Amino acid sequence: MKKILSVMLSLVMVMALFTGCGEKEESSSFFKEAAKLQDIQTGTSEMEFAMNLKGKEVTEDTDIPAILKNGDTVAFKIKVESTAESQTKSAVKISAQYGTNDYAELTTLVFDGEKLYLGVASIVDFIRSIDESVVAELESGLSQMGISDYISIDVKQLCEASNIEMQDMSKINEGAQNLTKRLFENLEKSFAGIQGKDGDDYTLTVGADNAEKVADALIQFCDEGSLKQTYNDAMDLYVEMFGADTEMGKQFAEMKNDTSELDNAVQEIKDKKEDIVQGLKDSKINAVAKINISGDEGSRVGNLSIDTGEIKDDDTTGRITVTSEVKEGEVSIQEMIPTEGVVDLTAMLTAMMNQTGAGLSGYGDTALY
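Now predict its structure.
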């Protein structure tokens, strides 16, 4: 079961990386649409992740909490609701559905540009519902610090106290957007053969029926230097984020110069093409990702779905689905910023770093992003 779960999660993460939203055009494709994700900077989104596993291994697995199991079946959902007011102001609410038909809040994370807020009470309630035996010790530790509902950290103040340079987020975001766009351009070239269209949706298909094409596309992406280019672009971005003269920046610069591990990974993919093909065929997988974008700039709506289909591994079957809707527009996170029951941990964290000799001085003028 762990093998099939690993395959399912890896596939969803890879396909989710390849997805985005933007305006449609006649000459578009899945990856061209995905590249336009960078155009949407503000608005709201809701993503629902659902997983269902069934089989003998589910029953025998003692690591799975009882509340998540129903006989030989494990089924749960996670919902992520995001609000982006700007590049530096955003909020995320995470909820889960397990054992009932209702969603329970796990936590809410809010960043107002300077201060980070985290909902703690909901995390405690979630842990209690999964394993009540560990809650007492957790609540005792939180109580000693006076924490009940929320904690906050003044990121700007913490950086100043720690001699850390807080970088301009707009520059970092611009660098990340450029990196992602170049990645999608390269993916477009390599994976053209597994893209398609279904009505108004642009599609990407990975399955047993096109296993050879998938393996060839992956090898092409690696063999033509696209993977190495993406790696180098990422290292350059990290160097810019942390500063070329800092210890962290120097480490990323060294990683860019030494690509031996990456080269070995590429060679292994090429050498194991047949294993990749056979693995897709054996799993009987038929995963499809779809994108549909509508509306004009400023009020675009993007719908994304990923469905792995039924994946088989010995006597265990599983399925993962992801649905997401993005709505572009002007929004505010003000109402999501907690005003009561908030304990600020900035001073405590600053003191802890000072006690450990930190101030993170070993990293020089490290950049926080």
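The first strand starts at residue 43 and ends at 54.
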